[in-house]
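User: What would this chain look like folded?
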Amino acid sequence: MKTSIYRLPLFALLFCVVILNLKADPIQDLKKSLSGNDPSVRASVVQHFVISLGTVNGQSLMAPAIPVLVEALSDPDANVRQIAISGLRGIAALTSRMVYPSITNAPDLTADPSTQQALLKATSDSDPTVRELALEAYGITYKMTPDLEQKTIDAFNSYEPKHGQEDYRFALLGTLVNDRSPSPVATKFIVQKIDDPKFGTPALQSLASLKEPPPDALPKLLSEAGQHNISEDRKSALKMAAKAYGPDAQAQVGQALANPR
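Assistant: Here's the prediction, encoded as structure tokens.
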């Protein structure tokens, strides 16, 4: 039976605390630990290390950690791969030049071409969680290809929420628009989600970020804005999306919100 990353054995957690906090070179210790035979220890060490990246001192470890986490994506244990890709996703979210064009003095996941290849390979991992996180990490860092967009849509549609687990569908939806120029297929998928009770608001927010919002979505915005009992979050998202279409659309949506049918 596999050991959940949320229920790791106490001895393993104590072991990773000792080797990562008392040794002088946590990167070398991480590499050494990943060569061990016990998957629970490998998972514990990577988990603790990924958590440490979020600390002030951990910021300096991000760049040297990238190749080690990339190597961990090839670990035979799915738990280790899950934690490694979550770490890479976290680094990508904080340092993406595509999301934050003006960022400086931060690790660059695009600096080594092998990182892109590793993330690309991880989008076809046998473990669905690894695939979903890899799609998100890739989409934050690189422009999505039509094939990867379709993988993202397929992952969204086949996702089965688990108790206590983050619903990755919200992130997958955002992944489609990180570079603000999705393909027509991805754009159509986003527009279809506007009517979804759960994903309608994030779909509108995604629509608002596009460089060229699709004309066929504007009637949907007006129809939605004219309904009664719209939540404040949805009203805000409708206004954001309308802004992408220009002043006339903003005025029409504003009027529809003020005078529901």
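The mean pLDDT is 83. If you want, I can go into more detail on any region.
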